[in-house]
Amino acid sequence: MKIKKITLYKVAIPMVTSFTTSFGTIYEKPTVVVKVETNDGFVGFGESAALPFPFYKPETTDICMLVLKKYIAPLVLNKEFKTVEELMIFLKPIKNHNFAKTGLENAVWMIISLKEKKSLKKILGGIKNKIPVGESIGIKKTLEETLDEVSLRLSQGFQRIKIKIQPNWDVRVVEAIRNKYGDIPLMVDANSAYTLEDINIFKTLDKFNLMMIEQPLADDDIIDHSVLQKKIKTPICLDESILSVEDARKAIYLKACQIINIKPGRVGGLLESKKIHDLCQKNNIGVWCGGMLETGIGRAFNIAISSLPNYMYPADMSPVNFFYKDDLVKESFFVDNKGFVEVPNKPGLGFEIDERKIRKYLIEKLEIS
Ligand code: OSB
Ligand code: MG
Question: What residues form DSSP beta bridges with 9?
Answer without folding.
Answer: 33, 365
